[in-house]
Amino acid sequence: MTLADVVSYVAAALSAMGVAMANVMQRKAGLANGPDRAFGPRFLLDLVRSPTWLLGFGGLVGSFVLQAVALGYGQLSAVEPIITLEVPLTLLVASRVFGSRLGRPEWGGILAMTAGMIVFIAALAPQPGDATDVSHRVYLVAGGATAATIALLVGAGQRGRPVWRTACLGAAAGTSFGLTATMIKETIEQGERHGLAGVLTTWQTYTAVGFGVAGLVLVQWALHLGPLLAAQPGFTLMDPLVSIFWGVLVFDEATRSGWWLAPATAGALGVGAGVVVLARSPLLARVNASDEPMPTPATAPT
Predict the structure, then answer these.
(1) Looking at the chain, which terminus has fewer C-beta neighbours within 10 angstroms, N or C?
(2) Residues 48 and 110 both lie in one domain
(3) pTM (two decimals)
(4) Radius of gyration of the chain (CA)
(5) What range defines the domain where residue 93 resides?
């Protein structure tokens, strides 16, 4: 493992912490300003004046900066899976902020996600590719396929049971975030080569912004439609999956193959199991929704 890898992994983990801080602090600020208030300009103005909300916003800004640093030093297929640790980190921060204790299921889910992620990254050991030597034709094919996947998931989310629709929209949101990360990778490469002018003149910058906003809208749509348990796996798992596909197939990042795929698969299954367990936590649901009662303290592990 090189120094660049270490910097990338640490920056990705801190980025996940920034997202977790933003989730909890902005949620706390929203509750403090009255969960029953109508959403509008006055409500937004009160939020912006709240030190708690500003702290959360600072965490969000910091997370974007740290993600850019992580992508600048490391590989897309390694950085994005690490950032999914925002889920257990959100629970840990929320347990402190909201005064709730985590029970055995939550601690088990946190352990499964963390251990699974370590095994997954260690087994694949992604190596650098080249994000700047990709033809427009490849971008068109890969980008079109990813955008089509998002459209198909949104379309599938228009009919059926609420849980199915929520799951599809959650997966569409995760796919949007994965595509956003791939575009940021190219933006960072252009910034390193050409400075601010490179960032402002590359089309990937604006594509990243567009799909990032689309992902945020899809998250709110999914949470409005159905339970967090149905939406969270899509939010969390599709992002790294899309990033790995882009990293390996488009940016030529190399990963281990052969028997190394067995522990990598086991690690990925551990992450998935942890996500499902943590999505059941009433405390995480409290952070992501506005119409659920505050969870009662769970029994702490003995």
Answers:
(1) C
(2) yes
(3) 0.76
(4) 19
(5) 1-127+281-290
